[in-house]
Each structure stands twice: as C-alpha cells, then as structure tokens.
Amino acid sequence: MGKKIATVITKLFEDSEFTSPNEALTEAGHEVITIGFEAGETVEGKKGEASVTIDKGIDDVKPEEFDALLIPGGFSPDQLRKDDRFLAFVKAFSNDEKPIFSICHGPQLLINAEVVKGKKITAVKQVAVDLKNAGADFVDAEVVTDESGLISSRTPEDLPAFNKAIVEALN
C-alpha cells in the first residue's frame, strides 16, 4: 500500500532535489503531493530544468492527511520558512514523529519550525552552523537518519543514497 508524501515547495527549488526523490517515491508506489502557497501555481526550479504545478495550497491541507514530508532544497525552504502556516505544518510532522525527508537547504525550514534540537541531521555545508546553533547534532555524511524518522542529505550528489534511504523508510 503506497503512502502519501507531502512535498512543500515553491519557486527556485533545487531542480534535481525534487525531481529525483519524486521519481524514486512514485516508482516505489507512493503518491507525492506538492504543497505551495497556492494550488495551481507553477513554480520553476532554480536551474530552469524543472517546472512543478502545485497540487494543493497550504491552506487546503492538514498534516494528518499525509504519511511523510519531503523538503527539497534550493531557495525554496528559505522562502517557505517565513510563513507560519508552513512552520506549523512541518512542526506537526515532527511532533507526530512522521518521517521527514530533507536535503541541502531543506533544514532551514526545520530550523525555523524549531524541530531540530537534539536531532542528528546533515545539510549543505553553509547550513551546518545554523543547525548547530539551533541545537542539532550536525553530521557531515551523505545520508543521516535520526531515530525520530528524520532523514537528511547534503547535496544533489547524495541523491542516490538519499532516495534509497527514504524509499526504504516507507516500506
């Protein structure tokens, strides 16, 4: 039985950090739902290689409708983290210990949702200090799995290992 994966995303996301996990999850039989500011909006990746039409607006969803959360990197997490609706959405996944999959700059959203303290996590190098300052246990590795269900990776180069880990986590 496939799971429903909420993906929070907006313009200037890191193209492959959405397309690659999306493909891996879909091929494994899961349903990936994109959630942005407004349903029907089309958002472009920062490299212009991917374009995504948002399935649902943040006001149209509830965390309990989903089994896991995917946060692609790029500039998207930085834009989402200024919106309290996205912070509350993310915080609910953490509070319920549902799987959260975060790559590259994705942890910026987790930091602002105040859900990283005491958790093992990785991210792109420039976010490491922010994670440490937020009380996270930063680990520089291609995939880091925390006992809470948080799975994180650093960059697009880590995608094969990240995709394997997130698909296995849902089985």
From TrEMBL:
Domain DJ-1/PfpI: 3-168
A Pfam short name: DJ-1_PfpI
A GO biological process held by the record: proteolysis
Top-level taxonomic group: Bacteria
Gene3D superfamilies membership: 3.40.50.880
The entry's keywords: Hydrolase, Protease
Molecular function in Gene Ontology: peptidase activity
Family matches, as InterPro entries: C56_PfpI-like, Class_I_gatase-like, DJ-1/PfpI
Family assignment from sequence similarity: Belongs to the peptidase C56 family.
NCBIfam families recorded: PfpI
Protein name: Protease I
